[in-house]
UniProtKB/TrEMBL annotation:
Protein name, UniProt field: Possible glucoamylase (Diverged), 15 family
Molecular function terms from GO: hydrolase activity, hydrolyzing O-glycosyl compounds
Organism expressing this protein natively: Clostridium acetobutylicum (strain ATCC 824 / DSM 792 / JCM 1419 / IAM 19013 / LMG 5710 / NBRC 13948 / NRRL B-527 / VKM B-1787 / 2291 / W)
Record lineage: Bacteria, Bacillati, Bacillota, Clostridia, Eubacteriales
Signal among keywords: yes
Positions of the GH15-like domain: 357-616
Signal peptide (from-to): 1-25
Length: 728
């Protein structure tokens, strides 16, 4: 991976900027809360565009689009994965018989048009400059999957009589590199190239029809080879072949001159469907174009985003770089939310492609929903909640009235492979024990140690529902979903409290320790602090919801159980750190009993959720233990997630950094909090304003799934709001 390493000396400087809703006019600057040196550098090469329907990626290294898929999620169901249909797509040009593809032209700059899904590159070759734009359109408001590629060519040299602009679109219509027996033809009446295989259809629409010519072929008749030898596209198509490639050329007409100091716009819309409905696809593509020129099409997309940002909430006092990252973070959350109709609608992915976590986790989704609420996007937050509350749980094939994963909680068989807890829930739960397929049904991943059965998400959902109610006062929402939130969520958390010690029953929790007991030999499994913390917070939220719903009995029940969990955690999970000698919270009861390896960043939420008073010495002890055991040794101010020692665990976690920053702010440690916020702000600003999942332990390179939504952009938004809105 290409890395432009720049050691940046940054000093205390909080610049005062009023939060702006304009996409243009931002000139970011860097800030740092204490004078120190950190390795701020560019290490990310892919940018993602998504409109909640389709997603595509652009490679800075290869200077081309390299992925386009018709759903934003990884898997529709257990048997249907989302395919990538794009091999590559890019522009080229020709002057005086010499052809050049932009894949071979150095990039001067690449970034998002800030606060949007529009990828913008600038390339210079001799006297010509090319500004390219790539996006999956929100504007046009149609359901078909489309990808727009535009280029503005500027002639800074001499007048040119012989000038052509080329585009190459190489889709594999079988999906996932299957390019066998593809077919193509040109629809003269509607003015587009069609490439297809079975029900999979791609439409290529040249937006600029002036001087437009087309071709499709393979080998020496492919667009690439024709262009490389300085030829022209002669409006010919290949009916059928393996690995068909399609392309357009816009060339000067007779007597036409591309004058010095002028610019020309070109562009192609790619439409894609898997259902064979060419009529609908072509209608939607033509509706998007609708006699617009490429510049108009770009402006329409910018206008859509400007409108979406209207009313967005952001703290006053942000630096320009914080403002840029904040706005791009809200855009990432919008891109990560599915807009398909039906059960898929509203789900928020943990990450976008090319990240591997393009899956809707409960936990990640809730942090995204909280960030949407904090930034004023209540409509999207509500849709995210409704998705979870309306989702279908996986049913037990042997007893269809029961949820499948309920067996692991309710079974009295404590042996392999069930390892049941023997807790009768009394009714089906409503929130997934892990995550969701794209079609809105429950999923849990499995490895040699069994499934993930996580109940921390149940408390998180209650927290988000209560936050939504506090923000909106939407009584219709509460009336509709109170039974689900109470009977099929909060009540079940109450039942999962162990009467013997007041702590929650074992689960897989935040770091997804699969269901097989921690030590199979003696049946020990882990009872995690994080799940107790989220349950405490969730039941407090449920008590407030019960108050709003005038349900006094439930309010008292949830309040009592929340208080008892708090007492149990403080009585049984506080341990004197074997490193600092101060009290801290251990990751699990079992790790505490072992006497080692119990330092875990997830317990920071005890401070953020109020289970531990931020002013208490225990809060200080928790942070001190992090600083001694989890702090990165690469020169970064950030943290790994725990002491488990695996490669994944031991990289730096942006989510952890930002939640620790939030806790530090709550504790009155503003300076330390700002160091972490500025560290990630500056890293993000060097990497397309995106927040990563991880940074590598040695070099702080971007790593893992990027762009990350709830654990990335969402956590950044929450941290920024917490810091500035509580500024002392």
């Amino acid at each position: 991976m290409k890395t432009k390493s720049i050691m940046q000396k940054v000093a205390l400087a909080l610049l005062s900027f009023t939060f702006s809703t304009s996409i243009v006019g931002i000139t970011p600057s860097r800030t740092m809360a204490e004078e120190t040196s950190f390795n701020i550098h560019h290490s990310l090469e892919n940018l993602t565009t998504s409109n909640g329907l389709a997603a595509a990626t652009y490679s800075e290294k290869d200077r081309k689009l390299n992925r386009f898929q018709p759903h934003i999620y990884s898997n529709y169901d257990a048997n249907t994965s989302t395919k990538n249909y794009l091999s590559d797509a890019y522009f080229g040009y020709k002057i005086n018989g010499k052809s050049t593809w932009l894949t071979g032209v150095p990039i001067t700059s690449v970034n998002y048009v800030n606060g949007t899904n529009i990828i913008n590159t600038v390339q210079k070759d001799g006297n010509f400059q090319f500004e390219s734009y790539y996006f999956t359109p929100f504007s046009g408001d149609k359901e078909s999957r489309m990808l727009v590629m535009l280029v503005k060519a500027t002639n800074n040299g001499q007048d040119q009589k012989d000038f052509s602009l080329y585009s190459e679109q190489n889709l594999n219509l079988g999906g996932n590199e299957d390019n066998k027996e593809e077919r193509s033809y040109y629809n003269k009446r509607k003015g587009y190239l069609k490439e297809y295989k079975g029900d999979n259809i791609a439409i290529y629409k040249n937006i600029n029809q002036e001087g437009s010519h087309y071709t499709s072929g393979i080998g020496e008749n492919s667009p690439v080879e024709i262009t490389n030898r300085g030829g022209h596209y002669l409006d010919k198509t290949t009916l059928k072949a393996d690995n068909l490639v399609c392309g357009y050329e816009n060339r000067n007409q007779c007597g036409d001159v591309f004058k010095k100091g002028t610019s020309r716009w070109y562009g192609v819309v790619i439409g894609l469907t898997e259902d064979g409905n060419e009529k609908k696809l072509s209608k939607d593509v033509n509706y998007l174009v609708n006699n617009k020129n490429p510049e108009n099409l770009l402006q329409n997309e910018k206008n859509w985003w400007n409108q979406w940002h209207q009313g967005e909430i952001g703290p006053k006092g942000l630096s320009a770089s914080e403002q840029a990252v904040y706005r791009q973070s809200t855009a990432v959350l919008k891109m990560a939310q599915c807009r398909e109709h039906g059960k898929s609608h509203g789900q928020i992915l943990a990450s976008l492609i090319p990240g591997m976590w393009s899956i809707a986790w409960v936990r990640d989704g809730i942090y995204s929903i909280q960030a949407l609420l904090a930034s004023g996007h209540t409509k999207e937050a509500k849709e995210g909640l409704k998705f979870m509350l309306n989702a279908d749980m996986r049913k037990d094939e042997t007893n269809p009235t029961k949820n499948y994963y309920q067996r692991y909680i309710e079974s009295t068989n404590k042996g392999a492979p069930v390892y049941g807890l023997g807790v009768d829930l009394g009714t089906n739960y409503a929130i997934s024990v892990c995550r969701y397929y794209g079609n809105g049904t429950e999923e849990s991943d499995k490895n040699d140690n069994g499934y993930n059965v996580e109940t921390d998400g149940w408390g998180l959902v209650l927290w988000a529902a209560d936050s939504y109610m506090k923000k909106t006062g939407d009584k219709t929402f509460l009336n509709k979903y109170w039974n689900t939130l109470s009977k099929h969520d909060a009540d079940l958390l109450v039942k999962l409290v162990d009467s013997k010690d007041g702590l929650m029953q074992p689960d897989s929790s935040i770091w997804e320790e699969h269901w097989t007991p921690y030590k199979v030999g003696n049946g020990i499994r882990q009872r995690f602090a994080y799940t107790n913390i989220t349950t405490y917070n969730g039941l407090k939220a449920a008590a407030h919801l019960a108050t709003l719903n005038k349900d006094k009995q439930k309010k008292e029940l949830y309040t009592e159980k929340a208080d008892s969990i708090k007492d149990a955690v403080l009585n049984k999970m506080v341990v004197k750190s074997n490193v600092t000698g101060k009290n801290t919270l251990g990751s699990s009861l079992e790790k505490i009993a072992e006497g080692t390896g119990y330092h875990d960043a997830a317990v920071v939420e005890a401070i953020n959720f109020g289970l531990v008073n931020p002013k208490d010495s225990l809060a200080t002890g928790i942070i001190d233990s992090f600083n001694r055991t989890l702090r990165m040794k690469s020169g970064s101010p950030g943290y790994m997630r725990n002491q488990d020692g695996g490669d994944y665990d031991s990289n730096e976690w942006a989510f952890v950094d930002l939640r620790v920053a939030t806790a530090l702010k709550n504790m009155g440690k503003d300076k330390e909090s700002k160091v972490l916020i500025d560290w990630l702000t500056n890293q993000a600003h060097a990497n397309f304003d995106l927040i990563p999942e991880l940074l590598t332990r040695n070099n702080s390179d971007y790593f893992g799934s990027i762009p990350m939504a709830g654990f990335g952009s969402g956590s950044y938004i929450l941290s920024i709001n917490n810091y500035y809105n509580n500024l002392r």
